[in-house]
Amino acid sequence: MGELEVRDLTVEFDSGGYRVRPLDNLSIDAEDGELVVLLGPSGCGKTTLLSCLSGLLKPTEGTIRFQGIEVEALSGSDLGAYRQKTVGVVFQAFNLLASLSARKNVMVPMTLAGVGHKEAVARADALLERVSLSERVTHRPGQMSGGQQQRVAIARALVHDPPLVVADEPTAHLDHIQVEGILVLLRELAAPGRMVIVSTHDDRITHIADRVIELSPQFSTVDAPPEDVDLAAGQVLFEQGDRGDLVYEVLEGSVEIFRQRSDGTEEVLASIGAGNYFGEIGPMLNLPRSASARAETATRLTGMNVRAFRQRFPATVKEARNPVA
Amino acid sequence: MFGITISDLLYRRRQFLIAIFGAGLVFAMTFLLAGLTNGFAVEINQTVTGFHADVWVVKAGSAARVASLTPFSESEVAGVAATPGVTTATPVIVIPQTADRSGTLTQVNMIGAPVGSVPIRQPLTSGTQVSGSGQAVVDQRLGAPLGAEVSVGGHDFRVVGITSDRTMLGGIPNMYVPLANAQAAVFQGAPIISAVVVTGSPSTVPTGLSTFTNQQIEAGSLQQMATAVSSINNSKLFMWVIAAVIVASLVYVTALERTRDFAVLKALGASSGKLYLGLAFQAVLVALIAALIAVVLAQFMTGIFAQPVDYPTSAYISLPLSAIVVGLLASLIALRRAVGADPAKAFAG
Questions:
Q1: How far B242 CA sits from the closest chain A CA (Å)?
Q2: Which element (helix H / strand E) includes B158?
Q3: Is B78 a member of any domain?
Q4: How many domains does chain B have?
């Protein structure tokens, strides 16, 4: 069993009245001392996973075990202790308090944990020195560059010397010089006794990682030929939230595109008749299906990969579909 | 948490100063109004005390209102003076009149008493006591200088002395004149009086008369101002609401601006209770500083009203206590923001 073990993790929630499932039966492992990079485009569930690992979001299903602690089962003071002492979080937008100096920002977790003032000041100064910001201890975020703010955020995450540090897109708002400094710092932090998990859509970071976990599946049907699919009336082809790599053209019959609302009802978006296509956005942009598809009548479809789709339909994906009359 | 709260307050000091100043002005008005209502009681007390009476002998059935006692014959004074236990018995007239100063009409409380008697001798700020017919000692609020001519009921008086803190019924100045002059001006010379001011402890009073203590006279006289006091108290209440709205607006806007901060603080280990306490602390601090400014401002605002303003000691205690209540109530508006902050939103980009 690894230090971090995630099994069949599913997160589903309501977003704008629709059910969204950013994580669907995800399983990953990681070991102590590793720099783990979560790679994937926006919307693939990286931030959701980090939220679950840091105890800020309860998954719908599945388990998270870190150093033998079942994170999803924690509650009350145990959950509070896990958040405070076991995991340090580096947020994407730094999330420093604008009214506090660098020193006071780093002191916040200690202040909230009841650590004495002198001890908190000494620890904060030591951490700021470690991230090379000794000369900025009295500066507010507005007086620091993005890279400096991110260093303060990292120092804050290290306050309780946690065995797990999660960083959400830590280089997102930085120029390339600042990015280099942050990456070097994160690489140094990952050592025996501490695991560092970084989420990013920038695959350049993978070169310094001990383990790379891709949250978007690599499809193996890139060069597969189109395949015909027969559906009976009412049969569902794919569901909202599913991962898929095929675009479908209706040969006979019609397909209803619908979304499930969070109250359980359905909203029909379109009806696709013969000669028209659907389901192109997910495979083209590597995103989960944003709606479900169901045959209205006995229907025959052709499922094709993205390359075949582009050859079959050279027009842009913004071309309007013609609903069945 | 309070350190974080103070830092945030200093960071947004411009917003807070505006709210403090606004709430401070409103608190100052409530403080001023408290001084106004207290002033009614103080001026009546000072006027009544100035008679140096132990007992007031009035016509039976008269209301205990110093400026509207039922008139009765001066012939009753002898009977009162002869009552066992009476040391002195001095006839007085107390009656509102209109004074004419060179065409300018002003309300006065005409107080007539025998020349040289205690009720007519008031502490002076300038001039001399009334020593003969046609003379008057007036309160400085009349605005008449020494030597000025004041006409009441067609009779002329010359101001020989100025007194202070001698007003009634909302700053109406008292005018002390010889009894005979008052009778001539008000009752066409008829020997009629309002009361007999007695020193000593009369065991009984002649038939047809009754007695009041100073406290009864003061309480009854203040009752005349009951409608005004009620209106002022309602206005005070409304102003407390305005002050609460000002502080609540500030707290709400602050909470809106700090929504992300709340999520981050929760993600870092703060409880909803601690977040709310921080907001409540800010609101109470704003209200208390506003109360302090109000007390200072109010000292310079007494000239707004023609009536005397006398700040009671209780107002210095009730104002900060009320400010704390205002702050706590105002902070409730942000309670939902603090409690509802989702720490997972700290991850939002």
A1: 29
A2: strand B155-163
A3: no
A4: 2
Check A92 against B347: CB less than 8 A apart.
yes
DSSP assignment of A123-138: HHHHHHHHTT-GGGTT
Same domain, B185 and B97: yes
Sign of the dihedral defined by the CA atoms of residues A55, A59, A65, A68, in that order: positive
B246 and B139 within one domain:
no
B277 touches chain A (CB under 8 A): no
Inter-chain CB proximity A50 and B346 less than 8 Å: no
Global pTM value = 0.72
- Per-residue pLDDT of A185-238, as tens digits, reads 888 899 999 999 999 877 778 888 899 988 865 554 556 678 899 999 999 999
Residues B326 and B276 in one domain: yes
Residue that finishes a domain, picked among B143, B164, B199: B199
A275 Rama class: left (phi>0) / alpha (psi -120 to 50) / beta:
left
Q: What percent of chain A has pLDDT over 70?
A: 93
Q: Which amino acid is located at A322 in the chain?
A: N
What ipTM does the predicted assembly reach?
A: 0.71
Boundaries of domain holding B258: 2-43+226-347
Q: Which of B7, B274, B347 lies closest to A50 in CB terms?
A: B347
Side by side, which strands form the sheet with A164-168? A87-90, A164-168, A195-200, A35-39, A211-214
Identify whether residues B330 and B251 lie together within a single domain.
yes
Say yes or no: B273 contacts chain A, CB-CB below 8 A: no
Main-chain dihedrals φ then ψ at residue A288, nearest 5 degrees: -65, 155
Q: Measured between beta carbons, which residues in chain A are less than 8 angstroms from residue B274?
A: 112
**pLDDT, tens digit, 9 for 90 and up, residues B105-164:** 999 999 999 999 999 999 999 999 999 999 999 999 999 999 999 999 889 999 999 999
In a domain, B215, yes or no: no
B50 belongs to a structural domain: no
- B335 belongs to a structural domain: yes
Together in a domain, B231 and B178: no
Chain A residues inside the 8 Å CB shell of B4: 97, 99-100, 104, 108, 111
Q: Give the one of B3, B269, B347 whose C-beta lies nearest to A51's C-beta.
A: B347
Picking from B8, B268, B348, the nearest residue to A109 by CB comes out as B268
Partner A contacted by B261 (CB < 8 A): yes
* B231 lies in the same domain as B315: yes
- Do B270 and A112 count as a contact with CB atoms less than 8 A apart? yes
- Which one of B199, B217, B236 terminates a domain? B199
